[in-house]
Amino acid sequence: AQSVSQHNHHVILSEAASLELGCNYSYGGTVNLFWYVQYPGQHLQLLLKYFSGDPLVKGIKGFEAEFIKSKFSFNLRKPSVQWSDTAEYFCAVGGTGGSYIPTFGRGTSLIVHP
Amino acid sequence: EADIYQTPRYLVIGTGKKITLECSQTMGHDKMYWYQQDPGMELHLIHYSYGVNSTEKGDLSSESTVSRIRTEHFPLTLESARPSHTSQYLCASSEFTGATGELFFGEGSRLTVL
Predict the structure, then answer these.
(1) What are chain B's domains?
(2) Which residue does chain A place closest to B88, by CA atoms?
(3) Which domains does chain A have, with CATH numbers?
(4) CB distance B69 to A31 below 8 Å
C-alpha cells in the first residue's frame, strides 16, 4: 500500500524567509506526485504536480518542488514566503497503474507572520 | 476554476438522524471521491466511483453509503448519525485518464453530530 509522510506538521515563518516542506512517499511503482494547498476558508486546490520529465517542477505563486526518485521525496520549496502563503499544504501520491487512487499526507500548517 | 459543489456547508444534527451530503460537479468527470478530513490528520478516502453505477469503499471504514446514478452527482448518506461521525467531508472529482490525475475539490461539508 502506498503512504505519504510529511515531516513538518506546523511551520511558522516570517515574511521573506525561505520555505522547504518535506514529503516522502512509499510506493512500489511509477508515481504521479502532487502538492495541494488549502487557504483559510477555501477549498483544496492544486499547487503543482509531477508526472514525468524534468524532476524540478514549478507551480503557482512561485512554488516549486523537486522529485528525487532515489530518496522517494517530493519536497516543496519557495525562496521567499509572503503572508498570503499562510495555508495548509498537502502532499499526495498516486500510481500510474492500478486503481489510481491518490493518497494524501497529514498536511503541514504554514503560518507566515508579516 | 473548479466547478464542484457541496451542500450543506455546515450541518449540526442530533444523534440518530439520517443525513445526506450532496456533491455535484459540472465538469463531466468520471471519477469522484469522498474524503474525510480531521484537523492535523491525513485526508482519508471513504468512497470513490469510476462512473455511473460504480461505487467502491475506500481505505477508511465508514458507515456511510454513496450512490452514483448520474455522472455529475455523488451523494453521501448516513442512515443514523453518531457523534463519531463529526468531521469534515470533502468531495472531489477527476478525469479518468488511466492514471492519477489532478483532483478538484469542493469546499467541504462540516458535520457536527450532537
Answers:
(1) 12-113 (2.60.40.10)
(2) A43
(3) 3-113 (2.60.40.10)
(4) no
